[in-house]
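How a chain folds remains the central question behind the approach discussed here. For one protein, we set the task of working out the structure tokens from the amino acid sequence alone. The sequence in question and its structure tokens are set out directly beneath this paragraph.

_____
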Amino acid sequence: MYAPAEQVIDLILQNAARATLPFREEPGGRLQGTAFWYNDLIEGEVYVQYLLTAEALTSFDVAAWTLRPELADPAPSAQGALTLDFAAQWKRLPRIGVAAMPAAHMHAYADRKGWRWTTDEITDGLAATESDIATIGRTPVPAYVLGHYAGGERDQIVVVGEVALDQRGRLRWNGDILAGLVGAPVFTDIPRPGGSSKLVCLGVALPDEIAPFDRIRKEVAALRARPGRRWWKRG
């Protein structure tokens, strides 16, 4: 049995409230999306850190990030930051419609400004596995998108809906993804024996489907062999 929505939303915010970062195309803000932090586990406590979003939102040259003060220590004086070579920062994964930005760029920006990121990340334990994804069938199940609605202050919201597999085996959200939430993480809780449930991040919200994390994990892991990587160790 699935947990009540209020309980799942609380779990999502406890684990991932500081994982998302809104951005928009500049000038004009015609395209707006959400990116989120992901730790690609190597072994033990060693991981490679990325920002993930929808590939469809990574083709423009200049982007403005909304700097959420709770994601930095000390809080930055500026409310936003520009990336002038935005399209060039992303490693594209066209087979799944996702793009990954090595986090070194964002950490270098924070170092120059005299603060550090204090984020949550989608970790290996929270990202859905192949067996987790296999629990989703043609019957819709509750799901949740955590992102930043377009316009205004780009406040963080949780949208409640449902996901299911379509006739081609693709993971689909019931209806359209709200403006600004493309690229955001999608969550569900998987019922377990004894009445408990397991919170997982299913994947990335794309304009027309959800890129599942079992495929994302494999595609991102393949980036390790490319130059320019930067590894972190927990603690």
